[in-house]
Amino acid sequence: MRIVIWFLVILVAVIGVLAFVALYPPARDKALVAMSHAAAYPYEEDVREISYGPLARHRLDYYPANPAELDQKRPIILFYYGGAWRAGEKAFYHFVGTRLAAAGYDVVIPDYRLFPEVQFEGFMEDARLAYGWVSAEMAQAEGREIIVMGHSAGAHIAALMAYGADYRPEEASRPAAFVGLAGPYAFDPKDWPSTKEIFADVPEADLARPVYFVDNQSPPSLMFHGDRDDVVKLWNQEELAAALAQHDVAHESVILPETGHYKILFSFSRPLSAEMGVMAKIDSFIEQYISRVK
Question: PANTHER family recorded for this chain (predicted)?
Fold first, then answer.
């Protein structure tokens, strides 16, 4: 009963925040940050804001792992948030960063430029810069692996980083694993009315479709999708899973019951984390496929 009440409180808060959008965006942003902190998993470390490039949006939040887990040297999680490639702030995802960090992972959540300031090539360049920073400043220095993760549009970006070698810095190795939540991995972004302007600078649609880049060198992949997601359709995950299976890539495709596009993200929140089991599944997947550095 308590979980249901928490979820209803979050839902009402989200609806209220959305009502602010047209009237006063600064109030919306402050409310989203407050809601993110209210839903966050207990976490006692200091979040560090760091520049990863020269532009205003080239900022990332670094969540150090729970000290009790530091000796295990778990992989670094680089999380790209969603927002239809049009909206988003790293501060809105505090509850994601704290949940992953409390599980013992160093977590990085970068901002990146959005449409209409940039199109596809612009935000992918930012994703590349962020990956390069994590690789050079954290992974290579400590002999650790990187896991790319994301939700919705962020899962699309993370999947391109995982499967498309040309999107990563030349000096950086491929990610050790990919974890995606409700990602549009297979759709044609040049065909959909809501995305055709954003992806107008892509010469061919396949170059922006993660499923196109899957091969037998692709990293182990864990995908989650809600059975009630009306924003990104389930067939995107099904097509990606089929491509991974065709190339004998280790993967798991999880369909969450009674879950929509946004509830899947709130699986990292304090009230829903235990019930939905997404964090536990991520932990199990990483334990199975990625060796810890001793």
Answer: AB HYDROLASE SUPERFAMILY PROTEIN C4A8.06C, KYNURENINE FORMAMIDASE
